[in-house]
Protein backbone atom coordinates (compact mmCIF):
# COMPACT_ATOMS: atom_id res chain seq x y z
CA UNK A 1 0.00 0.00 0.00
CA UNK A 2 1.11 3.57 -0.66
CA UNK A 3 1.18 6.85 1.19
CA UNK A 4 -1.04 9.08 -0.97
CA UNK A 5 -1.32 12.85 -0.71
CA UNK A 6 -4.71 13.96 -2.05
CA UNK A 7 -4.45 17.50 -3.42
CA UNK A 8 -7.80 19.26 -3.45
CA UNK A 9 -9.47 22.65 -3.06
CA UNK A 10 -7.05 25.43 -3.90
CA UNK A 11 -8.09 28.90 -5.07
CA UNK A 12 -9.88 27.91 -8.25
CA UNK A 13 -13.46 28.91 -8.91
CA UNK A 14 -14.08 25.15 -8.98
CA UNK A 15 -12.84 24.80 -5.41
CA UNK A 16 -16.07 23.33 -4.03
CA UNK A 17 -16.24 20.71 -6.77
CA UNK A 18 -12.61 19.85 -6.10
CA UNK A 19 -13.26 19.41 -2.38
CA UNK A 20 -16.07 16.98 -3.21
CA UNK A 21 -13.89 15.04 -5.65
CA UNK A 22 -11.06 14.94 -3.13
CA UNK A 23 -13.23 13.72 -0.26
CA UNK A 24 -14.65 10.92 -2.38
CA UNK A 25 -11.15 9.88 -3.50
CA UNK A 26 -9.91 9.90 0.11
CA UNK A 27 -12.73 7.58 1.18
CA UNK A 28 -11.90 5.19 -1.65
CA UNK A 29 -8.16 5.22 -0.88
CA UNK A 30 -8.83 4.45 2.77
CA UNK A 31 -11.11 1.55 1.84
CA UNK A 32 -8.30 0.29 -0.40
CA UNK A 33 -5.88 0.35 2.52
CA UNK A 34 -3.69 3.28 1.49
CA UNK A 35 -2.37 5.83 3.97
CA UNK A 36 -4.07 9.11 3.05
CA UNK A 37 -2.77 12.63 3.62
CA UNK A 38 -5.44 15.20 2.72
CA UNK A 39 -4.05 18.55 1.55
CA UNK A 40 -6.27 21.56 0.88
CA UNK A 41 -3.86 23.35 -1.43
CA UNK A 42 -2.66 26.76 -0.25
CA UNK A 43 0.50 28.89 -0.02
CA UNK A 44 2.34 26.31 2.13
CA UNK A 45 1.88 23.38 -0.26
CA UNK A 46 5.61 22.75 -0.79
CA UNK A 47 6.31 22.64 2.94
CA UNK A 48 3.37 20.33 3.60
CA UNK A 49 4.33 18.00 0.78
CA UNK A 50 7.89 17.76 2.09
CA UNK A 51 6.57 16.99 5.57
CA UNK A 52 4.14 14.39 4.22
CA UNK A 53 6.72 12.69 1.98
CA UNK A 54 4.07 10.84 -0.05
CA UNK A 55 4.77 8.00 -2.47
CA UNK A 56 2.35 9.61 -4.91
CA UNK A 57 0.13 12.69 -5.18
CA UNK A 58 -3.46 12.24 -6.29
CA UNK A 59 -4.48 15.52 -7.96
CA UNK A 60 -8.18 16.14 -7.38
CA UNK A 61 -7.94 19.84 -8.23
CA UNK A 62 -10.04 21.35 -11.00
CA UNK A 63 -9.46 24.54 -12.93
CA UNK A 64 -6.74 27.07 -12.11
CA UNK A 65 -3.49 25.68 -10.63
CA UNK A 66 -4.72 22.09 -10.71
CA UNK A 67 -5.45 21.44 -14.38
CA UNK A 68 -3.22 24.02 -16.05
CA UNK A 69 0.13 22.41 -15.27
CA UNK A 70 1.00 24.59 -12.26
CA UNK A 71 0.84 21.99 -9.49
CA UNK A 72 2.23 19.34 -11.85
CA UNK A 73 5.39 21.44 -12.32
CA UNK A 74 5.81 21.77 -8.55
CA UNK A 75 5.41 18.03 -8.05
CA UNK A 76 8.03 17.37 -10.71
CA UNK A 77 10.45 19.74 -8.94
CA UNK A 78 9.86 17.77 -5.73
CA UNK A 79 10.20 14.48 -7.63
CA UNK A 80 6.80 13.26 -6.43
CA UNK A 81 4.86 11.03 -8.86
CA UNK A 82 1.37 12.33 -9.56
CA UNK A 83 -1.85 11.19 -11.14
CA UNK A 84 -3.10 12.25 -14.54
CA UNK A 85 -1.50 14.07 -17.44
CA UNK A 86 1.83 15.86 -17.46
CA UNK A 87 2.54 19.57 -17.63
CA UNK A 88 2.40 20.05 -21.41
CA UNK A 89 -0.86 18.13 -21.85
CA UNK A 90 -2.47 20.15 -19.06
CA UNK A 91 -1.36 23.42 -20.66
CA UNK A 92 -2.69 22.37 -24.05
CA UNK A 93 -6.02 21.02 -22.81
CA UNK A 94 -6.78 23.81 -20.36
CA UNK A 95 -6.37 26.54 -22.98
CA UNK A 96 -9.49 25.98 -25.08
CA UNK A 97 -8.26 28.27 -27.86
CA UNK A 98 -4.90 26.50 -28.15
CA UNK A 99 -6.61 23.09 -28.04
CA UNK A 100 -9.04 24.05 -30.80
CA UNK A 101 -6.24 25.38 -33.03
CA UNK A 102 -4.38 22.09 -32.54
CA UNK A 103 -7.55 20.14 -33.40
CA UNK A 104 -8.09 22.12 -36.58
CA UNK A 105 -4.47 21.56 -37.62
CA UNK A 106 -4.86 17.82 -36.98
CA UNK A 107 -8.15 17.60 -38.89
CA UNK A 108 -10.29 16.87 -35.85
CA UNK A 109 -13.75 18.44 -36.32
CA UNK A 110 -14.51 21.21 -33.84
CA UNK A 111 -17.10 24.00 -34.06
CA UNK A 112 -15.93 27.12 -35.91
CA UNK A 113 -14.77 29.87 -33.57
CA UNK A 114 -13.05 33.21 -33.16
CA UNK A 115 -11.02 34.29 -30.16
CA UNK A 116 -9.45 37.44 -28.82
CA UNK A 117 -8.00 38.72 -25.59
CA UNK A 118 -9.08 41.68 -23.51
CA UNK A 119 -6.34 43.88 -24.97
CA UNK A 120 -7.65 43.34 -28.50
CA UNK A 121 -11.14 44.16 -27.34
CA UNK A 122 -10.28 47.24 -25.29
CA UNK A 123 -7.34 48.70 -27.21
CA UNK A 124 -7.35 47.35 -30.78
CA UNK A 125 -10.99 47.83 -31.65
CA UNK A 126 -11.98 44.16 -31.75
CA UNK A 127 -15.54 45.21 -30.91
CA UNK A 128 -15.80 46.59 -34.45
CA UNK A 129 -15.20 43.08 -35.79
CA UNK A 130 -18.14 41.60 -33.89
CA UNK A 131 -20.69 42.06 -36.73
CA UNK A 132 -18.43 40.11 -39.10
CA UNK A 133 -17.91 37.39 -36.50
CA UNK A 134 -21.62 37.19 -35.82
CA UNK A 135 -22.34 36.86 -39.52
CA UNK A 136 -19.78 34.07 -39.93
CA UNK A 137 -20.95 32.05 -36.93
CA UNK A 138 -24.68 32.75 -37.09
CA UNK A 139 -26.84 32.82 -33.97
CA UNK A 140 -27.00 31.53 -31.34
CA UNK A 141 -23.32 31.95 -30.48
CA UNK A 142 -21.61 30.37 -27.48
CA UNK A 143 -19.35 32.83 -25.63
CA UNK A 144 -16.89 31.26 -23.20
CA UNK A 145 -13.68 32.06 -21.33
CA UNK A 146 -10.64 30.29 -22.72
CA UNK A 147 -9.43 28.55 -19.58
CA UNK A 148 -12.29 27.74 -17.22
CA UNK A 149 -13.87 24.35 -16.72
CA UNK A 150 -17.26 23.08 -15.56
CA UNK A 151 -19.04 25.43 -17.97
CA UNK A 152 -18.10 28.42 -15.81
CA UNK A 153 -18.65 31.74 -17.56
CA UNK A 154 -20.32 30.23 -20.62
CA UNK A 155 -23.18 32.26 -22.05
CA UNK A 156 -25.50 31.85 -25.04
CA UNK A 157 -25.94 34.92 -27.21
CA UNK A 158 -29.19 34.43 -29.09
CA UNK A 159 -28.91 37.77 -30.91
CA UNK A 160 -26.42 40.59 -31.44
CA UNK A 161 -27.95 42.39 -28.46
CA UNK A 162 -26.85 39.54 -26.16
CA UNK A 163 -23.20 39.55 -27.21
CA UNK A 164 -21.84 42.48 -25.11
CA UNK A 165 -23.21 41.11 -21.81
CA UNK A 166 -21.96 37.62 -22.69
CA UNK A 167 -18.48 39.02 -23.38
CA UNK A 168 -18.45 40.92 -20.10
CA UNK A 169 -19.37 37.70 -18.27
CA UNK A 170 -16.66 35.69 -20.04
CA UNK A 171 -14.01 38.38 -19.46
CA UNK A 172 -14.82 38.30 -15.75
CA UNK A 173 -13.41 34.75 -15.72
CA UNK A 174 -10.50 35.08 -18.13
CA UNK A 175 -8.58 37.66 -20.16
CA UNK A 176 -9.17 35.64 -23.33
CA UNK A 177 -12.53 34.57 -24.72
CA UNK A 178 -13.82 32.63 -27.66
CA UNK A 179 -17.01 32.95 -29.63
CA UNK A 180 -18.04 29.55 -30.97
CA UNK A 181 -20.69 28.35 -33.37
CA UNK A 182 -23.46 26.73 -31.37
CA UNK A 183 -24.11 23.09 -32.22
CA UNK A 184 -27.70 22.10 -31.72
CA UNK A 185 -27.62 18.48 -30.71
CA UNK A 186 -26.74 15.93 -28.07
CA UNK A 187 -24.12 16.52 -25.36
CA UNK A 188 -21.74 13.53 -25.21
CA UNK A 189 -18.65 12.73 -23.17
CA UNK A 190 -16.05 10.04 -23.70
CA UNK A 191 -13.86 9.30 -20.70
CA UNK A 192 -10.55 7.57 -21.31
CA UNK A 193 -8.70 5.33 -18.86
CA UNK A 194 -5.17 4.19 -19.67
CA UNK A 195 -5.64 5.08 -23.33
CA UNK A 196 -8.90 3.16 -23.77
CA UNK A 197 -12.29 4.86 -24.17
CA UNK A 198 -15.09 4.00 -21.75
CA UNK A 199 -18.81 3.88 -22.62
CA UNK A 200 -20.22 7.17 -23.94
CA UNK A 201 -22.22 9.27 -21.46
CA UNK A 202 -24.99 11.54 -22.69
CA UNK A 203 -25.98 14.48 -20.49
CA UNK A 204 -29.62 15.48 -20.91
CA UNK A 205 -30.51 18.65 -18.91
CA UNK A 206 -33.99 18.50 -17.44
CA UNK A 207 -36.29 21.29 -18.57
CA UNK A 208 -34.96 24.21 -20.57
CA UNK A 209 -31.41 25.46 -20.58
CA UNK A 210 -28.14 23.71 -21.25
CA UNK A 211 -25.51 21.67 -19.45
CA UNK A 212 -24.16 24.51 -17.29
CA UNK A 213 -22.29 24.54 -13.97
CA UNK A 214 -25.42 23.97 -11.87
CA UNK A 215 -26.69 21.25 -14.19
CA UNK A 216 -23.36 19.44 -13.83
CA UNK A 217 -23.24 19.30 -10.06
CA UNK A 218 -26.77 19.56 -8.68
CA UNK A 219 -28.33 16.13 -8.45
CA UNK A 220 -31.59 16.09 -10.39
CA UNK A 221 -30.69 18.92 -12.78
CA UNK A 222 -29.46 16.54 -15.47
CA UNK A 223 -30.30 13.02 -16.57
CA UNK A 224 -27.34 10.89 -17.57
CA UNK A 225 -27.58 8.01 -20.01
CA UNK A 226 -24.69 5.57 -20.08
CA UNK A 227 -24.06 3.90 -22.38
CA UNK A 228 -25.68 6.54 -24.58
CA UNK A 229 -28.24 5.20 -27.05
CA UNK A 230 -26.66 6.35 -30.31
CA UNK A 231 -27.22 5.56 -34.00
CA UNK A 232 -25.19 2.76 -35.57
CA UNK A 233 -21.51 3.57 -35.78
CA UNK A 234 -21.67 6.79 -33.76
CA UNK A 235 -20.26 5.26 -30.57
CA UNK A 236 -17.24 4.00 -32.50
CA UNK A 237 -16.79 7.39 -34.17
CA UNK A 238 -17.01 9.17 -30.81
CA UNK A 239 -14.45 6.79 -29.32
CA UNK A 240 -12.08 7.36 -32.22
CA UNK A 241 -12.38 11.16 -32.09
CA UNK A 242 -11.84 11.09 -28.32
CA UNK A 243 -8.75 8.89 -28.71
CA UNK A 244 -7.32 11.19 -31.38
CA UNK A 245 -7.93 14.31 -29.27
CA UNK A 246 -6.48 12.69 -26.13
CA UNK A 247 -3.33 11.67 -28.01
CA UNK A 248 -3.04 14.99 -29.85
CA UNK A 249 -2.97 16.92 -26.58
CA UNK A 250 -0.58 14.42 -25.00
CA UNK A 251 -2.90 13.33 -22.21
CA UNK A 252 -2.06 10.26 -20.15
CA UNK A 253 -3.56 7.98 -17.49
CA UNK A 254 -7.11 9.33 -17.73
CA UNK A 255 -9.13 12.21 -19.10
CA UNK A 256 -12.41 13.14 -20.72
CA UNK A 257 -13.29 14.50 -24.16
CA UNK A 258 -16.57 16.38 -24.64
CA UNK A 259 -18.35 16.19 -27.99
CA UNK A 260 -21.58 17.26 -29.64
CA UNK A 261 -23.64 15.08 -31.92
CA UNK A 262 -25.29 17.62 -34.19
CA UNK A 263 -28.79 17.40 -35.57
CA UNK A 264 -27.09 16.68 -38.91
CA UNK A 265 -25.54 13.52 -37.43
CA UNK A 266 -22.01 14.98 -37.42
CA UNK A 267 -19.74 14.71 -34.37
CA UNK A 268 -17.59 17.64 -33.28
CA UNK A 269 -15.14 17.91 -30.37
CA UNK A 270 -15.69 20.77 -27.94
CA UNK A 271 -12.78 20.30 -25.54
CA UNK A 272 -10.72 17.89 -23.45
CA UNK A 273 -10.50 17.77 -19.68
CA UNK A 274 -7.23 16.48 -18.18
CA UNK A 275 -8.65 16.08 -14.65
CA UNK A 276 -12.32 15.11 -14.88
CA UNK A 277 -14.47 15.44 -11.78
CA UNK A 278 -14.89 12.51 -9.43
CA UNK A 279 -18.05 13.66 -7.65
CA UNK A 280 -21.31 11.72 -7.42
CA UNK A 281 -22.60 13.38 -10.61
CA UNK A 282 -19.31 13.35 -12.56
CA UNK A 283 -19.12 11.56 -15.88
CA UNK A 284 -15.88 9.57 -15.57
CA UNK A 285 -17.12 7.47 -12.61
CA UNK A 286 -20.43 6.86 -14.41
CA UNK A 287 -18.61 5.69 -17.54
CA UNK A 288 -16.30 3.46 -15.50
CA UNK A 289 -19.25 1.89 -13.69
CA UNK A 290 -20.92 1.16 -17.04
CA UNK A 291 -17.71 -0.61 -18.05
CA UNK A 292 -17.84 -2.72 -14.88
CA UNK A 293 -15.20 -0.71 -13.02
CA UNK A 294 -16.21 0.35 -9.50
CA UNK A 295 -15.20 3.73 -8.11
CA UNK A 296 -12.64 2.12 -5.80
CA UNK A 297 -11.17 0.16 -8.73
CA UNK A 298 -11.01 3.37 -10.77
CA UNK A 299 -9.13 5.21 -8.04
CA UNK A 300 -6.73 2.29 -7.54
CA UNK A 301 -5.98 2.13 -11.28
CA UNK A 302 -5.30 5.87 -11.43
CA UNK A 303 -2.81 5.53 -8.55
CA UNK A 304 -1.16 2.51 -10.21
CA UNK A 305 -0.73 4.41 -13.47
CA UNK A 306 0.96 7.29 -11.64
CA UNK A 307 3.39 4.92 -9.90
CA UNK A 308 4.10 3.04 -13.14
CA UNK A 309 5.06 6.30 -14.84
CA UNK A 310 7.39 7.34 -12.00
CA UNK A 311 11.12 7.02 -12.73
CA UNK A 312 12.77 4.05 -11.04
Lay out the secondary structure:
Layout lengths: L2 E6 L6 H17 L3 E6 L4 H8 L3 E4 L10 H8 L9 H8 L1 H11 L6 E5 H6 L6 H8 L3 E5 L9 E3 L5 H9 L4 E6 L3 E9 L2 E2 L3 E5 L7 H5 L4 E4 L8 H16 L4 E9 L4 E7 L9 H8 L4 H15 L3
Parallel strand pairs: 1-2, 1-3
Antiparallel strand pairs: 4-7, 5-6, 5-7, 8-9, 8-10, 8-12, 10-11, 12-13
Helix pairs in contact: 1-12
Question: Could you walk me through the main structural features you see in this protein, from its secondary elements to its overall organization?
Answer:
This protein has 312 residues and is of the alpha+beta class. It has 12 helices and 13 strands. The strands form 3 sheets. Strands 8, 9, 10, 11, 12 and 13 form a 6-stranded antiparallel sheet that branches. The protein has a 4-stranded antiparallel sheet with strand order 4-7-5-6. Strands 2-1-3 form a 3-stranded parallel sheet, sandwiched between helices. Strand 8 (185-193) and strand 9 (196-197) form a beta hairpin. Helix 1 crosses helix 12 (295-309). The relative contact order is 0.15. Residues 211-217 have low confidence and may be disordered.
Stretches where pLDDT is under 50 for at least 5 consecutive residues are: 211-217
Discrete helix count: 12
**Rg, nearest Å:** 19 Å
Strand content: 15-25%
User: Could you describe the largest sheet, including whether it forms a barrel?
Assistant: 6 strands, antiparallel
Fraction of residues in helices? 25-40%
Report the structural category.
alpha+beta
Total E-strand runs: 13
Q: What would the average pLDDT be, to the nearest integer?
A: 88
The H-and-E topology, N to C, reads as EHEHEHHHEHHEEHEEEEHEHEEHH
Molecular shape = globular
Terminus-to-terminus distance: 17 Å
Amino acid sequence: MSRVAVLKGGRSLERQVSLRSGARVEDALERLGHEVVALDVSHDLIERLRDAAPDVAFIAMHGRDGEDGTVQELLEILDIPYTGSGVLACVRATDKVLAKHLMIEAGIPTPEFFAFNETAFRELGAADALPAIEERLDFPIVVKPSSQGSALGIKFARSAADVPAALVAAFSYDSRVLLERHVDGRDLAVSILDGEPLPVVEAVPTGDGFYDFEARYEIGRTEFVCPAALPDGVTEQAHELARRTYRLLGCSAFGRVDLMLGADGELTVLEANPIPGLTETSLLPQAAEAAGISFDELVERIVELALERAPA
